[in-house]
Amino acid sequence: MSGPSAAAGLAGLLTQGQWLLEQTAYEVGGRRATAGQCREVAEALDELAAALREHAETRETAPATGENSASHGGTDV
User: Fold this and answer.
1) Which of 1, 11, 42, 48 is the most buried (most CB within 10 A)?
2) Residue 43's domain spans which residues?
3) Structural domain contains residue 37
4) What is the value of pTM for the model shown?
5) How far, in Å, CA of 27 to CA of 54, rounded?
6) How many domains are contained in the chain?
7) Contact status, residue 33 vs residue 27, Cβ threshold 8 Å
8) What is the dihedral of CA 57, 68, 12, 1, to 10 degrees?
9) Residue 68 domain flag
């Protein structure tokens, strides 16, 4: 995953991940989440983590774009 469109795609995945975590927290907290649902969420989070790792690798090899990393919480997103 590289380039502006890939970054936008990753941003979309992160947004979906956030929503998924919020919904899962609600279900787990209410003791309604099934084992299967928990496994599905874990798998989705594994895929998201892999996408983030891949993005990090492209950032490590890409030349600086002039972005101020401080605007991203001090990290190079």
Assistant:
1) 48
2) 3-58
3) yes
4) 0.70
5) 30
6) 1
7) yes
8) -20
9) no
